[in-house]
Amino acid sequence: MLRPLLASALTTAMMIAGIVASPATHAAADASRPQGAALLHQREPMSFGVFYYPEQWPREQWQRDFNGMAKLGFSFTHMAEFSWTYLEPQEGQFDFKWLDAAIEMASKAGLRVILGTPTGAPPAWMGEHYPEVYRVDEHGQRHEHGIRAEVSLSNAKYQAFVTRLVTAMAEHYGHDPRVWGWQVDNEPSSFADFSDSARQAFQRWLRARYGTIDAMNTAWGGSFWSTRYTSFEQVLLPNATLAAEDKLSPNALLDLARFQADTTASFLDAQAAIIKKYAAPAQWVTTNYTNVSTATDPRRSHGMDFTTFTLYPVAGANILGGDSYAIGKPANLMEAAAYFRPITGTFGVMELQPGQVNWGEINPQPMPGAVSMWMWHAFASGASLISTYRYRHPLRGSEMYHEGIMGTDGVTLSRTGHEFVDAVHEIGALEPKLDARARLPSTMAARYTGYLWSQDVFWDLEIQPQTTLWNSWAYRNGYTLAVKSTGAPMDFVGEQDDFSRYPFLIAPAYQMVSKALAEKWRRYVEQGGHLILTSRTGQKNEAAQFHEGPWAQPILDLIGDDVEGFDMLPASANGTVSSGGSTHAWHRWADILSPRPGTEVLATYSDHYYAGKAAVTTRRLGKGSVTMIGVSTDDGVLERDIVRSVYQRAGIAIEDLPTGVFHEWRGGYSFLVNYNPQPYQATLPQGAQVVHGRLPLAPAQVLVWKDTAP
Ligand code: GAL
Description:
The protein has 710 residues and is an alpha/beta fold. It has 19 helices and 24 strands. The longest helix has 29 residues, at 250-278.
């Protein structure tokens, strides 16, 4: 069984290298348009760019600035995503002259242009005449002009303004060879919107989803507290801020999250459709998602040729302690690449933090090396485009104190700008040496891991955390970091995807499990896959309701346990779990497992009425294995050890990378990056030829070597 799995892991690796297109592609299905990677790679394989706002600077400086970008080694610039007030200064009157001039100057300097649609920042006249285009927040307050992205995406008037502007832009620039591609909107998000427009749109959405009001009542548990409806028109947007101790229906809240994500996706797709109607096939369309977010779901959108995301790793958080706050959140880029890459097989980093930012609670300087390391990390993870936000340090306005590539004088590189530009040249020099036909080393292919991801499941966890100690984000990060400590390549996969491409599959806290998913897992394991499930998995069905049967019913035969219940503790209580002679404190979550014959116990609870019951179990099934990690320990060390042991039990060699040290591979080269505050003394494979960096790998540094291993 491992053979086909290995072969498919290699295929996945080739997708990463841009050799074959991902089968999981969600890009627009217009056969006449080149897709994803092809669109992006039409002119060159790897592109670096920088954001510029001509409207923020005197026109006399534009040419100088574009020339400066080109001289530094950038190949594209990015404009217009907040300039609606200049593009349509008065209702229905468009002015593209200034942008024409800026594009002309950029082109003269040798730069290509990515155009943003400015739908995240409507002009003042719109709020003045049509205040209804603004969203209403959960406190009933209508938002207003002055801050960006405060609109109601469900508002028909706003949608009409968007359609008219984007049509005008697409007609004007759709055949302009200087325009490389489009970014629709900016960091699309689903803000809570309690406006009348949103309520009516929600009612339409519910009608389309459920058909009859009775079906919705059943789905939401309408037999509770007189929350039954007799028509869709009665349904209000569930507003959790109005609920104190009592809870709204979690099923209603889950539908609200789905509705909001669908609304955002349709908003993006409508813009993409307009652009594709008018634009030459060579122009592509994407958007810049805010990293891995709960507010949007890129898999719900079908109009993007590929995905990009924004990345700001240093803004005050200190996850790994010591000086790691200055290197950045360790799981940020690693997870984003794993999440976005499989969607179309191609991805880019549309905004990369250029230096200090202005919006964090604390805004420290990135450690020397960090900016460069993020770029190498993005490149190593398969990015096709890296762009930095922004060229110039603003002198006034909302983003004062936000660094750019250039300092406040507009002509001198900032410290981090220097670093960015050096990395452009270093990565640019290595890029042509990549071998597009190189195969992922068999050691890495053998540990290729799928991380089963569902936006529904994540929303559902957030809606019913059950303990304030539960943090879905940190929980996910703990498991992705554990997987990456083995040196495994990792993709986020969806339930519809082909699991057999991955020798290992992990589904942490996968609360909603349908019978079909449980069956798909069983077949995967029987055919040789190694499945890791964790706390809370299988408690609910696909409708986010409990199974009418034993707790976690659909997974019991699979994990070889009965789940007797679960517990969680106040922070002041004691809870310990022991495994192989070591003990671990836990408070967050404990699934109480009762193993069936043939199931091996790997960890046991030491206290409370379930002392002696299993916390972690594993079993062989067919040609594969299933491991159930029911406990969430305080420091996650037990879970990390268990995850690692799954590979070892399967006879697969793994690495022992410290948390935040990542091993990636691209086109015949291996890359090590270090987000850990400690240096790392790696042992390189025999015959490795180091082409960049040195050992020990200092914090915020990169090591690159040419792989000669098979
Ligand atoms: C991003 C946003 C940009 C800019 C940047 C500042 O999240 O997309 O427009 O505001 O933050 O760091």
